[in-house]
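step=encode ok
step=design start
structure_in=
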């Protein structure tokens, strides 16, 4: 019965998906379903007794209901979703428990209006990694949950609900293939618009395979490297690989030589570069010159915006407050009260 069913909100659902992708819990066979949200409950005591919720540990809990009268808890964040939801919104993950699909998580986490943070989550959902749900900042390798096309199609089905303007804007920054949180941060630093603090470069392919010839004095052998960022020119020709060496089938020096031998410029952006804004800027401006794209050095207001974005993307202390940030993304920035927002 739907009256005994709890539907996790976008924050709890995202943490559940992360735990599943990292192998901490088993969601091997989630079933799509369309619950009657007007009958679903939001009782935090009942939620904490559910096995999957207990396995998540000490994480924020939120719930979705369809009737404002059901959002009665003073200790639980609740979103009221009025009207019929499109297919692919919810999945049953256990007895008495439903979760938001990855696509609905993305859409509802646009309610807080934080473009860069939502873009990071979009890249994670479409990438080959998941962040641990424990605020440690650690990540694991896994298959992608969704892709940009599915996110865009689902957001279009939702119409004009709260937060979707931000979600649609963020989709311009989302692509597939990121393999780690740091790759996501570097991608956003280089491609986000200047008004957001980025360098506004064109979007590269992430973790793209590049076929090259490993040349010796006597023979050329076909090999494959992986470029964490691969840029093409207007005609589709590969022209630039960023931070690619050592990630593919070739040793680092041979990979660089093979790429450059095929006419592809190579720029390494190392962990050390991402620890210093001045070093990262020097590499970003070099990439821009090689691509023939005009990018202004950081001065005045632009320096302030880039400094803020750099701290947002590469600050290690960010993980200590990640649960709080997720709640802000869902629009839970204010203290919990009996007044609930309707999405």
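sequence_out=
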């Amino acid at each position: 019965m739907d009256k005994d069913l709890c539907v996790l909100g976008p924050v709890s659902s995202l943490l559940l998906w992360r735990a599943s992708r990292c192998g901490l819990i088993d969601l091997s066979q989630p079933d799509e379903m369309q619950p009657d949200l007007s009958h679903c409950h939001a009782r935090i005591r009942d939620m904490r007794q559910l096995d999957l919720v207990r396995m998540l540990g000490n994480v924020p809990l939120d719930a979705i209901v369809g009737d404002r009268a059901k959002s009665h808890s003073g200790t639980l964040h609740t979103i009221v979703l009025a009207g019929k939801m499109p297919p692919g919104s919810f999945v049953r993950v256990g007895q008495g428990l439903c979760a938001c699909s990855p696509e609905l998580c993305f859409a509802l986490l646009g309610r807080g209006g934080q473009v860069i943070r939502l873009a990071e989550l979009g890249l994670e959902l479409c990438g080959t990694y998941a962040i641990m749900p424990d605020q440690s900042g650690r990540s694991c390798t896994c298959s992608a949950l969704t892709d940009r096309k599915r996110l865009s199609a689902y957001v279009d089905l939702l119409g004009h609900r709260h937060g979707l303007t931000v979600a649609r804007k963020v989709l311009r920054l989302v692509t597939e293939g990121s393999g780690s949180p740091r790759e996501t941060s570097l991608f956003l630093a280089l491609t986000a618009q200047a008004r957001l603090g980025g360098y506004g470069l064109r979007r590269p392919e992430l973790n793209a395979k590049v076929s090259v010839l490993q040349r010796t004095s006597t023979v050329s052998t076909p090999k494959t490297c992986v470029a964490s960022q691969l840029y093409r020119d207007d005609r589709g020709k590969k022209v630039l690989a960023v931070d690619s060496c050592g990630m593919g089938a070739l040793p680092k020096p041979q990979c660089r030589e093979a790429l450059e031998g095929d006419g592809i410029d190579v720029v390494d952006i190392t962990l050390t570069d991402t620890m210093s804004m001045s070093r990262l800027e020097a590499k970003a401006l070099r990439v821009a010159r090689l691509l023939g794209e005009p990018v202004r050095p950081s001065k005045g207001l632009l320096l302030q915006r880039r400094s803020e974005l750099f701290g947002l993307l590469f600050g290690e202390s960010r993980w200590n407050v990640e649960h709080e940030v997720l709640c802000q993304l869902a629009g839970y920035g204010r203290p919990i009260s009996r007044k609930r927002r309707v999405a």
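step=design ok
step=annotate ok -> The longest strand covers residues 220-232.
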